[in-house]
Write a structure and sequence with these properties.
By secondary structure, the protein is α/β, with parallel strands linked by helices. 41% of the residues lie in helices and 15% in strands. It folds into two domains: 204 residues, Rossmann fold (3-Layer(aba) Sandwich); 86 residues, UDP-galactose 4-epimerase, domain 1. It has eleven helices and 13 strands. The protein is globular and about 60 Å long.
Length: 325
Amino acid sequence: MSWEGRRVFVTGATGLVGSWLCRSLVDQGAHIVVLVRDWDPKSEFIRSGTIQKCSVVSGFLEDYGTLERALSENEIDTVFHLGAQAIVGTGFRSPLATFESNIRGSYNLLEACRVHQGLVQRVVIASSDKAYGEAAVLPYTEDMPANGRHPYDVSKSCTDLLALTYAHTYGMPVAVARCGNIYGGGDLNWSRIVPGTIRSALEGKAPVLRSDGTFTRDYLFVDDVVDAYLALGESVQKSGVRGEAFNFSPERPYTVLDIVRQILELVGRTDLEPVILAEAKAEIRDQYLDASKARKVLGWHPRHSLPVGLERSLDWYRSFFGPVT
């Protein structure tokens, strides 16, 4: 399928994945409409100039009328729903705001898509491994239930259930993408381990870890996530994809300390010793995904190893921060 001339609505365009997804779609000739809540000039979407090549709808996911109008007036045929409160710690501190954005925002958008089924031909919902909750057996496979327990995790579990409800009840072309820890240039959430460690190392400061450093995750480079979302969007109307969830992962878990040490080595600051706070709250200790379904059904596989992804990320942050004094 070609994205040339497609009319695409993207929520969460100013975020890490949204910035690079919109750039890829623009490069492929799609007409992009984005929902923007707050103006952040440091967002890669804005500072790169991608926003100048998109139509902008100002508003909130919690406002159904704005979403319905955006789809109708712009004759949208494809929706990528990336907009969410995406920080676990923020979810712990502010569960109501997280539920409003992630749950209400998702059913508002899905309902607007249902109302305009004559227009909307494909819907991709960006989810997370957090939707599975904590499991005794790893890696997560798609036949495991959505079983979140903490606020952010529950918000993703609910979003997934809502998405699949609209697919199975109303026959809508909806599919869910679940990824582990996404990293790459443009992530300005410094509480996350990759951008936080890179910033600390470039400033000559010891990186600070909220956990004890032994928590395990899989880490997926943002370009591979963009590939995953596009592959899902291209196939979502097909049998075996519509109404399904797909895991996307390099299938190689690392501890937090593994990641920190690799970054410090890349920066050339192995003299910096991480500060371990061991005070993480509402976070699952071990999570990683099985991506065999995505490989088999979608033909997707990650193109970037962790060292390559971290090096490309580091290049972006060096450019972002400029010369270190």
